[in-house]
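Bug #77: duplicate submission created two jobs. Keeping one. Sequence:
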Amino acid sequence: MSEFLNHPVRAIAAKDLADARRDHFILIVIGFIALAALTSLVTGAIALANDVTTYNDAKATLMALGKSLDGIAAPEFYPLKLLRGAIEQIEIIGAVLGILAGFRAAVSERGRQTLALIMTRPVKSWQFLAGKYVSGVALLSLGLAAVFGLAAVTLQLTSGVGLQLADLGRIAIVWVTASAYVMVFYSLTFVLTLWAKSPANALLLSFALWLLVVLVAPQVGDTLDPDNQVAGGVFKQLHVPKAEQNRIKAGYAGFETIRNGIEAASVTKHFERFSFAVLGIKDSYTGKPLGPILVEKRGDFLWILFTSLGLAALMLARPINANRLTKE
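Kept job's structure:
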């Protein structure tokens, strides 16, 4: 037991978490994500609660008049759809959080000239890097857990529709996926910062990649989608049958391959597709059982997971040259 408690990986992770608590910066960013998510959530939850109240009042009125409710289908309410704003905030600001956390974890040792001292101790290079990675996983996953936890409590208290155990399970799945998504940007920025001659240049490059992956690629894909040129979709608005849709799409299959390739290059788009499906935010998945959704969307989840693990492996792969890194 004592050997585990004194293990270098654990010691470095604990030190990094303590540093994060002291400077409060990461906690402030997490608080900002929570505030932005809850702002959009509360508005929708209040509207949903009004719809629930209206239905219950109408039902009570009919029953008071002695009217039968047989044959009248009760409306279905889906509170998880209100998490759309929270997912979008994590897509954008959560990725920024990963960048800042990764930059802080790497530059803290460079800035205080402690890296050379650490490496003189009986600590292997991979143990140092693994400790940094473990602290990043703990910090970011716990922060996102707080965001999703607050969102779930808000839905429970304000939407007028109680969350079921299955709903909490869906939220938990998305939380795990969101943690892996944010760790993509943590690992990327950590690697760039630790190995760049100038930490400032590494941070600028990280944000340039963030701009390309999070904002540009998904937006280009959406803008080039012919079916997105009308709110709700051209095919849906014109009531085009599915078979006819497929025939029309076959006419521009090459264009569609390029457009989808641009979207698929973005880990953000995969996170959005997976989360929107699991939470039922996208109408075609609303009310569907979770099992078939996970089977259908496993490709998006695996893309996020393998990207995150691949960058983690890159982070741990190369030995540290402490002398070079401490020469600023």
